[in-house]
Write a structure and sequence with these properties.
The protein is α/β, with parallel strands linked by helices. The chain has one domain: Aldolase class I (TIM Barrel). It has ten helices and 14 strands. It has an eight-stranded parallel sheet. A four-stranded antiparallel sheet has the order 5-6-12-11, with no helix packed on it. The protein has a two-stranded antiparallel sheet with strand order 1-2. Helix 2 runs parallel beside helix 4, helix 5 packs across helix 6 and helix 7 packs across helix 9. The protein starts with 5 loop residues before the first strand and ends with a helix. The structure holds succinic acid. Succinic acid binds next to loops.
Length: about 300
Amino acid sequence: MPSLAVTLGELQLANPILSASGTFGHGLEMEQFAPPERLGGLVSKTVTLRPRPGNPAPRIHETEAGFLNSIGLENRGLETYLAETLPEVAGADTRIFCNIGGESPEEYARLAALLDERSEIDALEINLSCPNVQGGRLPFSTDPALAERCVRAVREATSKPIFAKLSPNVSRIAELAVAVEQGGADGITAVNTLLGMQVDWRSGKPGLATVMGGYSGQGIKPVALRCAWECVQAVSIPVLGCGGIADADDVLEFLAVGCAAVQVGTASFSDPGLLGHLAADLAARLEAAGLESIAQVRGSLERHLSAK
Ligand code: SIN
């Protein structure tokens, strides 16, 4: 059986497949379809300091190749997460990543400090890139100096591994990748959703109440792959590829550009059982190709290019 184990800095994962934040509840809601022990890690929905009601409906709109969302970081807030959600999720036999969202570097740091005390959490993912709050301005993931400040504030507040989730809605994602590495991130998640919109031309009604929202799903895979590759080339910390992954071949494409692991999101909505068998599919693909480990695939693009 090919080896699927991966190491992200000091963190060992059984396999390179994680759930993407906001697409899998906090993890256990999907247990009957995808038992958590079959994943390398569960990434929680974004947790904020205070509860958030989220944006007005409609806030999901299906498109030809994915969907638009404008959830607006709806969640019950840190206190409820710590008191109710975390004790449930903590029993899962996988790595637990808590995704956090804030409105200032100080707020991110406060969240990180409060979560630092909880040994059930293996790592933090800093959501710098939600397009559905602060009027879609994406301040933390478009301004390298602010991104760095934010990550540094979190770094100073916690000893847990931290992963910065970047936005594809920038001209040069590599600059953001370098900034978060300098701020002390242990890894990067590339990428969050693309800003998009839809309108009914007859009525003029937009698909989302907020008009613009985040576009995810298979349609964004080429963009996400390009962003992940640009990050891989710019930094030496591990990159987690995210965007449009729907099967084992997609996972392998992200590994080929140099990602250490991947996150799967929108595909779980059309196939809730996907994450229950994706690691086994990956092992089967490697076996069929005569490979013994995913390490043999990782970075194959670079090897191909430099052999030319
Ligand atoms: C949302 O809650 O609006 C989506 C989360 C995100 O895109 O980061």
